[in-house]
Amino acid sequence: MLNNLTAKENYRIFCEDNKSIPLFMQAWWMDAVCKSDSWDVFLYKKNNRIVAVWVYHFVKKMGFKIILPPKLTQTNGIWIDYSENYSKNERLSYEKEAMTNLIQQFDKLDFSYYDQSFHYSITNWLPLFWNGFSQTTRYTYQIQDISNSNKYFNEFKKSKKSHIIKAEKLIKTDFELTGEEFYNHLEYNLNSVGKKVYYSKEFFLRLHDACKSRNQGCIMSAYDEKNNFHAALFIVWDENIAYNLISTINPQFRSSGASSLLFFEIIKHMSLKTKVFDFEGSMNENIEKSFREFGAIQIPYFRITKYKSLLFKILFNLKNRG
Question: What is the DSSP code (8-state) at residue 130?
Fold first, then answer.
């Protein structure tokens, strides 16, 4: 790669040539969910080849510069290339070397607070611990082989199967809902239960259009014979994993089984495009239970945080207590 390019420019080229970079860390994704000047990347190279990166998004709040995950972005942070065959000891040494280099670059940043969730491929955070970072374990749920629908359907809880069989007789699914219509349904359904969408329609449509233009996103929706809207999913994917990014259910038809049917149908559809289905797991107890009932496997990943400003820590904690 050309040495006169910026780290971000080099990273853009790297992403186009390297599909093993997780979806939420791809340069095009960061462009879609961030302002162009509010994200950047550090690179670690060996033999003039990028082998590790640290992607981050920053904002200004209360006069402080803080690093936070972009909206609708499950994970980013550090990624390490594991394409070489390492022994267990060699892998740990390699991780320490790569992370230490990235941490040295990162610590030169002027920031007050850091908060990112790392892709689940990062299972060793010791170098971050040694440099003052903290960790909380979070969970998502995945079906890790979606090639055989009969096989994973048999893993569904009995009640899920019953909902799907019932809904198949009453509900139709299609891909005809537009991005704007999806957002309108989402907004209406949340408002009807006293909640709000935490991102704007403009933001959602920018992301939706970016995914659709790359054939890496779609909306599947469910209706009954009277054309009543029951539920919809916005799914995004790369060549390795499909993610349930946003789901919405009409509260009037919550018991129709449409949501379960949608997941079954979209997973079958995604089997033509990728290998794994990620339910975008939630720490909410009820949502976790529902995803688990699809026979999905619990996958841990790390939320990494660090305070660099004592004043910000005090103000942040006071605000959260209030």
Answer: T
String of DSSP letters for 266-315:
HHHHHTTT-SEEE----SSHHHHHHHHTTTPEEEEEEEEEEE--HHHHHH
Per-residue b or e along 227-264, where b marks 16 or more CB atoms closer than 10 Å to that residue's CB: eebbbbbbbbbbeebbbbbbbbbbeebeebbbbbbbbb
Q: Tell me the pTM.
A: 0.94
What's the token pair of residue 197?
């969408």
- The Cα 136–Cα 303 span in angstroms is 5
CATH superfamily assigned to domain 145-274: Gcn5-related N-acetyltransferase (GNAT) (3.40.630.30)
In degrees and rounded to multiples of 5, residue 148 shows phi and psi of -125, 105
Residue from 200, 185, 198, 204 nearest 252 by CA: 185
CATH 3.40.630.30 segments of the chain: 7-140+301-321, 145-274
pLDDT digits (tens, 9 = 90+) for 23-82: 999 999 999 999 888 999 999 999 889 999 999 999 988 789 999 999 999 999 999 999
Tell me the pLDDT band of 321, cut-offs 50, 70 and 90.
Answer: low
- Helix segments in the chain, DSSP class H: 7-17, 27-33, 88-106, 126-129, 149-153, 158-170, 179-191, 201-213, 258-270, 285-292, 310-321
* Size of the chain in residues: 322
First to last CA, the chain: 50
Distance CA 70, CA 278 (A): 19
Fold of 7-140+301-321: Aminopeptidase (3.40.630)
Tokens coding 272: 């033509």
